[in-house]
């Protein structure tokens, strides 16, 4: 399958601190590709480069055969990309409907019409959130907020969805709820790139896997339990116990 995103010899640094060193990777179309790795390993920086938020890099990032630097906001692009960042805060009690509606700004030029409201209603209904539409966003739980923010990205109708730690700070119920929504989107044809911290949830829901380590992005070539255990132990510097969940490898810290 032809990759929708190709990264070639990508290098990036903050002054004297090297973050990415000759990274090469391919992300296939219509799959959920998960990037694992320790805090500060460069995962979020890689996402910012792919999303077009950071342009001072060396190498090439190809999105549907167009180099990222040449893709300008407001111009015609081969694919539409949606990006959900790791952190979002607001102190204003906007209604949920209005928060999601801001995702239509590129379509409505900040003057939404009936089609924009219909798109918002459709996405909220699709993920069973319509009962929240008139509630203040600030009154929602962390899991509900994350689902609303995901809807705000989805009303942009992205071909590629980039999620930076979408289950961060969520309890297990909402971690699974968010990932089930993401899995549904992939099954419907959306390409998803996702940074995650929990390898177990990654292996349960993902299709392709990568590990960021030593400033490089390493593709996971095998899901064989012992090989994967060694890779994760080397990455996280923690001894692990390998488990099996109906054929899906899972790992727990090995206590001393």
From TrEMBL:
<dbReference type="GO" id="GO:0016887">
    <property type="term" value="F:ATP hydrolysis activity"/>
</dbReference>
<dbReference type="InterPro" id="IPR003593">
    <property type="entry name" value="AAA+_ATPase"/>
</dbReference>
<keyword id="KW-0067">ATP-binding</keyword>
<dbReference type="InterPro" id="IPR017871">
    <property type="entry name" value="ABC_transporter-like_CS"/>
</dbReference>
<comment type="similarity">
    <text>Belongs to the ABC transporter superfamily.</text>
</comment>
<dbReference type="InterPro" id="IPR003439">
    <property type="entry name" value="ABC_transporter-like_ATP-bd"/>
</dbReference>
<dbReference type="Pfam" id="PF00005">
    <property type="entry name" value="ABC_tran"/>
</dbReference>
<protein>
    <submittedName>
        <fullName>Iron complex transport system ATP-binding protein</fullName>
    </submittedName>
</protein>
<keyword id="KW-0813">Transport</keyword>
<dbReference type="GO" id="GO:0005524">
    <property type="term" value="F:ATP binding"/>
</dbReference>
<dbReference type="InterPro" id="IPR027417">
    <property type="entry name" value="P-loop_NTPase"/>
</dbReference>
<dbReference type="InterPro" id="IPR050153">
    <property type="entry name" value="Metal_Ion_Import_ABC"/>
</dbReference>
<feature type="domain" description="ABC transporter">
    <location>
        <begin position="5"/>
        <end position="239"/>
    </location>
</feature>
<keyword id="KW-0547">Nucleotide-binding</keyword>
């Amino acid at each position: 399958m032809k990759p929708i995103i190709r990264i070639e010899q990508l290098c990036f640094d903050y002054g004297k601190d090297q973050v990415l060193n000759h990274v090469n990777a391919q992300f296939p179309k219509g799959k959920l590709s998960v990037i694992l790795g320790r805090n500060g390993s460069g995962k979020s920086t890689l996402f910012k480069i792919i999303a077009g938020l950071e342009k001072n890099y060396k190498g090439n990032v190809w999105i549907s055969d167009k180099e990222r630097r040449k893709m300008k906001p407001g111009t015609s692009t081969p694919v539409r990309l949606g990006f959900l960042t790791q952190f979002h805060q607001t102190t204003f009690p906007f209604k949920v409907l209005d928060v999601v509606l801001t995702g239509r700004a590129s379509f409505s030029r900040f003057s939404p019409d009936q089609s924009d409201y219909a798109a918002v209603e459709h996405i909220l209904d699709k993920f069973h959130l319509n009962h929240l539409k008139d509630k203040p966003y600030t009154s929602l739980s962390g899991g509900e907020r994350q689902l609303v923010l995901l809807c705000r990205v989805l009303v942009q109708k992205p071909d590629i969805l980039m999620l930076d730690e979408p289950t961060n700070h969520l309890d297990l119920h909402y971690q699974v709820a968010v990932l089930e929504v993401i899995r549904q989107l992939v099954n419907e044809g959306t390409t998803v790139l996702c940074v995650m911290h929990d390898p177990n949830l990654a292996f349960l829901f993902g299709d392709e896997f990568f590990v960021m380590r030593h400033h490089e992005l390493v593709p996971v070539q095998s899901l064989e339990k012992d090989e994967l255990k060694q890779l994760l132990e080397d990455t996280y510097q923690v001894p692990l116990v390998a488990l099996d969940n109906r054929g899906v490898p899972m790992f727990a810290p090995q206590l001393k």
